[in-house]
Amino acid sequence: MSLDILTQSGGDSSPTSMTPNKRVSLTWLLPLGLLLGFILILAFLFGSRLMPATQVQTAPVVTVRAAEGEQVTSGGGSQMLFQASGWVEPDPYTTYVPALINGIIDKLEVLEGQSVKKGQLLATLIDDEQKLMLQAAKQKYISMEKTIDAHCMGIPIVEAQITAAEKKIVAGRRLLDQERDNLKRLESIGKNAVSEQSIVQARFSVARHEALLAQVETEVPELTAKIEQITSQKESMLASLSELKVEESQAQLALDRTRITAPINGVVLHLHAAPGKKRMLQMDDPTSSIIVELYDPEQLQARIDVPLTEAAGLAVGQKVEMVSDLLSTKVLHGVVTRISGQADLQRNTLQAKVAIENPDSRLRPDMLVRAKFYSAPSGNNAGVASAGSLSLYVPESAMVGDSQLWVVNSSNLAELRTIELSQDHRDDHIRVLSGVKSGERVILPPHTELADGKRIQESNTPE
After folding, report:
1. Residues 112 and 145 in one domain
2. At what angle do helices 154-189 and 128-152 cross, to 10 degrees?
3. pTM above threshold 0.70
4. pLDDT of the residue at 162
5. pLDDT digits (tens, 9 = 90+) for 73-114
6. More confident residue, 226 or 70
7. Same domain, 235 and 201
8. Do the bridges between strand 266-271 and strand 115-116 make them parallel or antiparallel, or are there none, so unpaired?
9. Is the same domain home to 244 and 150?
10. SS3 of 265, please?
């Protein structure tokens, strides 16, 4: 019985003893999975580098700085001196269209990128106040006109009074003559025939008529002076009327300025306003009164940042060719119109303005362009290099066909490039106008084992 018990106890303990062994046998899968995952990540990231590389021979792109006056042969009759990048901008500047009075935008009639004609309505301001001011100014003008008319009505009255006074003068003179004649006859008769009293009365009558005549004669200058006074007051009132006319014109101008129109034919570059937005003059914000910015698509230029190492080749009137990613198949022709008076210290560049002679309607300000600056053409098909201009040369043996060669890119991979060549040859090298950069390395033959993106290893590289 004791043996059975031992056997039974041994049978009961065997399942329990096997469980830890099974758990231990599965734990090795976790580190194995992590190791496999790490190997896969390394293979994905650096698999191309782990693959065997093709051994090639390379040669550097040779950079030559031309001396002043040096002749460089060019098949087109002019030499490309250097290349630089820049941005398109309006020529000569952007046209800002402001609100000329303070106000609030009522309606905006245009959107960004929209073409507009000169005189076209761009926006309107709320004009209720300006209408009332114009109506008040017109009413003041009419009121002053009526006042002047009423004031001038006194002139005919005074003129009639002058006529009456002149007639009184004529009658008075006749009466005076009669009295004088009567006095003379009485005095000639003598005191024996006429009483002294009659003679005295005749004398008093003459004196009285003389006084009356003198009084009437003084009325004419007074009435004439009154006419002059009325005329002078009329001139003063007419001057006030002119002032009121100016006020009316100012009110009309303020009302007209609530309608903002385009000063040129152009395209809307930026909107600075929206319905309900205030536009204010004489504020710290320089755009506080601006409604829109316009530019003429027929008047564009490029703002080119020329490295100072190439700036010696810049000149006003210099021919330039430009290309843009937007117009990859079109060459833009231009000419240098201005050179900045100050260099950019941070970028180490000098800015040049290049007028675009054949702008495209699809061009927009701030689009990037790549510009090629050329020297003036000469009659013998040779360009004269400016002092300090750089030229790039590659070995003629590296060429694949007429316009391609293999280049080692930054990832140490083979890259087949299409380049532009000139007719200038030097020591088994040919001058490159575009397609490679200074400091790059080109692959020498053989090229039979090369392919785009294939990893390469330089060996026995000739300098």
Report:
1. no
2. 10
3. no
4. 80
5. 444 456 778 889 999 999 988 999 999 999 999 999 999 999
6. 226
7. yes
8. antiparallel
9. yes
10. coil
* 251 plus 290 within the same structural domain: no
Give the model's pLDDT for residue 380.
42
Q: Does residue 272 sit in the same domain as residue 369?
A: no
Q: Which two tokens stand for residue 46?
A: 């650096």
Report yes or no: 351 and 394 within 8 Å, Cβ to Cβ.
Answer: no
395 and 444 within one domain: yes
Which among 338, 420, 319, 433 is positioned nearest to 377, based on CA atoms? Answer: 319
State the first-to-last Cα distance of the chain, in angstroms, to the nearest integer: 98
In a domain, 415, yes or no: yes
Identify whether 385 is part of a domain.
no
Residue 271 structural domain = 107-122+259-294
The verdict on 235 and 290 lying in the same domain is no
Number of domains in the chain: 5
Q: Quote the pLDDT of residue 384.
A: 46
Find the mean pLDDT for residues 145-171: 82
- Is the same domain home to 22 and 70? no
166: alpha, beta or left? (left if phi > 0; alpha if psi -120 to 50): alpha
What's the burial of 257, exposed, middle or buried (CB within 10 Å: 0-12/13-18/19+)? middle
Residue 65 included in any domain: yes
- Percent of the chain at pLDDT above 90? 29
Compute φ and ψ for 300, nearest 5 degrees.
-125, 155
CATH number of the domain bearing residue 358: 2.40.30.170
Nearest to 289 by CA among 257, 312, 265, 321: 257
The CATH number linked to 146 is 1.10.287.1700
What was the pLDDT predicted at 197? Answer: 78
Cα–Cα distance, 425 to 87 (Å, whole number): 34
Report pLDDT digits (tens) over 287-297.
888 999 999 99
Q: What is the per-residue pLDDT across 374-421, written as a single tens digit (0 to 9) for each?
A: 887 644 444 444 444 567 888 888 888 888 888 888 778 888 888 888
Q: Kindly write down the DSSP assignment for every residue of 155-212, as one continuous string.
A: HHHHHHHHHHHHHHHHHHHHHHHHHHHHHHHHHHH-TTTS-HHHHHHHHHHHHHHHHH
- For residues 414-437, give the mean pLDDT: 84
Last residue of a domain, which of 276, 294, 312? 294
Q: What does each C-alpha distance from 435 to 121, 332, 407 come to in angstroms? A: 49, 19, 10
